[in-house]
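Archive maintenance. Older records in this collection stored only the sequence; we are now back-filling the structure field for every entry so that each record is complete. The fields below show one back-filled record exactly as it appears after the update. Entries are processed alphabetically, and BRCT-containing protein-like protein is next in the queue.

ARCHIVE ENTRY
Title: BRCT-containing protein-like protein
Organism field: Hapsidospora chrysogenum
Length field: 855
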Amino acid sequence: MGDASAGVFKECAIAFVPSSTLAPRQIGELSSLIQDNGATVCEPRRDGSIPIEKVTHIVSNTIDFPQFTESQAVMIPVVTTQWIASSVHRRKQANVRPFSPDPRMIFSEVVVTCGDLPVMDKESILGATMALGGQESKDANKLTTHICTLSIDHPKIRAAKERDWKGKVVLPHWFDDCFKLGKRIDEGPYLLPDPEILKKAPDEALDIPENNNLEGATSAVPDWLPLPPNSDVVRPPATVFQDRKIMLSEDLGITKRLRTAIKDTIINGGGKLVDNVERCDMFICQYRDGPQYVQAAQSCKEVGNLSWLYFLIVRNEWSSPLRRLMHYPIPRNGIEGFKDMRITVSNYGGEARIYLENLIKACGAEFTKTMKADNTHLITARNTSEKCKAAPEWGIAVTNHLWIEESYAKCEMKPYNIKKYNHFPPRTNLGEIIGQTFFDESRLRELYYPGGEENMSPGAKRKRKILEAAGDNAYNHGPAEGVVIGRPGLDKGFDVRRDDSGEDSAKKRDKASATVTPVRSRHVAPGKENDTPTIDSSTGGRSAKNKARDMLHNIASDIALYEKEKKRSSKSGGAPWGGKRAADLAEKEKLEKSKSPAQEQGHGDESERKRPAKKPRPSLVEVELRIVVTGYTRWVGDQHREDQDRRKLRDLGIQIVQEGQACDYLVAPHIVRTVKFLCALARGPTVISSAFIDKVLETGTVPPADDFLLKDKEAEARYDVKLQRSVGRAKSNRGRLLWGVPIYCTEKIRNGTDSYKAIAEANGAIFKIYRARSGTTIKPTTAEEDGGAPPEPVYLLSSTNPDEKALWERFRDMARKGNMEPRVVAPDWLLDVAMAQQVRFDKRFLVENFFANDS
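Back-filled structure field:
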């Protein structure tokens, strides 16, 4: 450990945001690095959120996380992991601007030096580049990414080539075209020594580029629920909905079957479907109108459409519905001014063409596949097609897609003669930059949901302040419009700790709910913004059929329990059940025997009169709490008592679910390293003491569950964990702690492979049985093929019996050939990682060390 008082990150408090581009295992490595250099790592709260009031920097490789807007409001800089690497390399903190993950900072991570350019051109290029996230370097060093010059013979280039420099030499035209568009285009056509823009004519053929920005965002009305990428069999749980309450608007017009599929997906991910705007966190609708939409938007709920919901399900990562134009509800009557327009498209292909067609229709204009004299506009990716040549002669306005995108985003028709809407780089198809325009929330509010302050809850008022503060801190014009570059140490403007969803407010809500009904949910975590979903069966207006379906869904576990008990009792020769139901069965059998054949054939009315009247089964209350129970001694060896207690709990709205299912709480008498405990912990439930169940069964009421938080200092010391910290990390990781980490296991390991497989896969690992045969090998690669990256670890779980030892050397050889670092470890390493919810490694877990004293 370095001297913290003299570290690069002295007095920095840094929080990390896990994502598909920043895995928890990388976070563990970076956390150790910054702590060695004087920083404090801010762990997530128990609800998985970042403690904004404590941090000075947020490290994230994406802006797609729920608290990004809040970080903008209080000017906390959000930087990529490259900021850490650059700071450590320079031995001083790097400027945050060049390391923003905001895609609107188009020259982020560009380090440029200039060659033989006029002084004024050089200053213009460097100034604009740095304003948009780039950096200047005096000479071409290892960190320099671009040399901007007119000649390949410049001394800087010769010197760089002698040092085997890996960057790009570009013409200044590239920077100029990027500035004019406000987007970063591919520099390929501008590369020296043989730049395509000087070599080929503008009208020569050009391939239509691929564009990942439109994936899952081409239409506001998707036709079907798509499958997730890289998943051929089972859709993984959509943990992006963990602890969130979602409301589906009636204007979606979806079938009951699709609605049920969406509901099951949300519930399996840990969320809940509700039918009240006030109680939802996410409101899904088709149009930007109606009282429910206005109420949800004014209350600062996350408002999106079905396309956005599907995007979250498939990606299983958070994204703001304002980030992509087709993820926000469309205006029912289009944008003012577009009604009588007829617009056609040229030089866009694939998803880009579909997207533009839908965007034109959403604006209220008519899309035409062909161009005729009555067309008003032509949107083109290049100005070289036959349509482009004919358009001026027919009086048709020619623009690129930025005109329609920015008109839709600003909710007003923009003048089509603005320079950037008419700019067409000669050897670039602008389809490569489509789909990068963001919505302007303040403009949406101004037009579609103004006012509402008098009816806002304290939480909504706080969110409104956050949105307004973020808007005030953002650039208002130019290519970087909407961007906030945080600077630590500024006045935050308002106290972010005054959160309606904070610990004090949670306790107030607990008390308030306790006065209403003893079985209402109390799942409110300190600092929590999203309470556990509840459904008030007295509101909504669902049909009887829907209620029946929901009731059947809720009693499924009771039916399964009954069938199990029936089989068990039948085997033992006893009655399948007792009490009144047994008496009813006996009476029914007696009546059946007393029936004559004639009665059975044609005298049903008489037999009906003889039947005892059936009392209707009381409807079960809504499930308010889903819990996983492990290590509970009350039920050991007493199946009958367990069944009775389960029914009592279910009657009070508490459902016991199996491991792997979404749950609100994990219940245990103390910290245990059981498979059920560790698998459930991976999804981040609040861990409470089994005394909670005892209290419920004793009193017949449901006390606030958060009053029973599990405390086990002895086990925490033994396993070197802090339970609440582990829960917060798990909430943040969302089941991806070991995402992409290959974990092999010997076939003959002690206690079998099934338990370790369940724990590893619950945390997102790639788990395989290692038999030293084909099918389990790692593809041989070199460091150069892996981009020069250092070897990543790959693990083999093993014990020390001779059959397993024989596999160790072959495993190590396989790993090294694949440019990976082999680690043969005891199974306790996996248990330790799962319990801490942090990818950490200590040499004591190496199998030869761990079992050194084994007899």
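Update note: The domain at 111-199 is CATH 3.40.50.10190 (Rossmann fold). Confidence is low (pLDDT under 50) at residues 488-493, 496-555, 568-583, 595-604.
Entry marked complete.
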